[in-house]
Amino acid sequence: MTSVRVVISGAGGCTPLGGSLAEVGEALRAGRLPFVPSRHWPEFAVAPAEPQGDMARAAAPDAALRLLGGWRHRHYCHRGAQLAVLAGLRAALDAQPGGEEGTPSWTSLLPDDTPLLLAAGPMLDVSGEPGLPPGDVSRLGALWLLRWLPNTGAAALCRFLGLHGESLTLNAACASALQALGEGFRRIRRGEADRVLVAAGDSRLSEVGLLGYARAQTLSRRGPDCGPRPFDEGRDGFVAAEGGAAFVLESLEAATTRGARIHAELLGFGASSDGGSLTAPDEQGRYAERAVRAALAEAAAAGMTGGPHWISAHGTGTERNDAVEAALLERLFGDMSSPPAVMAFKSRQGHASAAAGAVELLTLLAAWRTGSMPSIAGLERPCSSQLAFVREATPFAGPLGLLENFGFGGQNAALVVRLWT
After folding, report:
1. Has 314 been annotated as catalytic?
2. Whole-model pTM?
3. What mean pLDDT do residues 364-380 have?
């Protein structure tokens, strides 16, 4: 069977550094960091994706935000779901060869049988939900349950875009977004679809959302204006973030035929489960390594040679996760005369949880357009001498790279991509 080449022909987001590739790229060039004190736990830093509060009130809304903001039922989508919907609308627009001109006909942007794969985080805005026990349940709205259902964001996005194909919502903790991208990649690779929309969104910036992390002592305590320090000897935890990012995936043939701009090509995907602790990673990183090796092997079978040139590490900034990931990367690449450059975008965007992989892929596409790999912010004393951590803005050595995400429950995912000019 002939292997189908899979490319990204549309990208959009709502991230702490911006919603478009141009905005994120500008923020990277300027070295801007988005960390601010949390309004719920002021002693901790967070990284919001839009002005905190109603996204519809953001300055200079684009067509996607105007559509979402004008929808009277948007309150049925919790904040993370809204971020996914907004990102999906922006990606669908970006996939059009002519770009956004005037008011788009949203239901004509993608074929109506386009599958949607949505990576979603949980509803954690408990303290802001009126009527929940021990409150007065008589205050609950008639359809309050919609905010708690994982597929409400997917239903909203299908409604806006007029999609009637498969709609699947995934939650694999911090590996969710890469898992959704991998599932979309597989569907096109196997010939099951010509085009797939993959969207992701999550927010943990609520009082209850931050409470669990604070009690587990996984949040960085450097102060409200500081970011995390992935792979630094002095790292002390991550910074919670929110964000959304989405991509239109399609076969290279379909994208070329319709004259679409191609952002990147997906070459390989791997996933695995530790089958151990509900929170801590496998101490040897054996099953995370299995996922990475599977992605690299599939990419090699697809013709990848001479890579990867760079790695987008999971890099949370927590003691145990970074140690396990660094050891894994040492085993795979530490003996190379020219090991791949290691980036850690959570140092610049925070940890977007279920949306992390999509937000980091969007940031990669933006960085590629600037021509430089951004340094790992806050990295002063690297935890490994064998790995080529990016310590200052450096030109990309090449287009081939690996993205890694490892989540609670031992969920592991890895994706190999080739960036296009």
Report:
1. yes
2. 0.96
3. 97
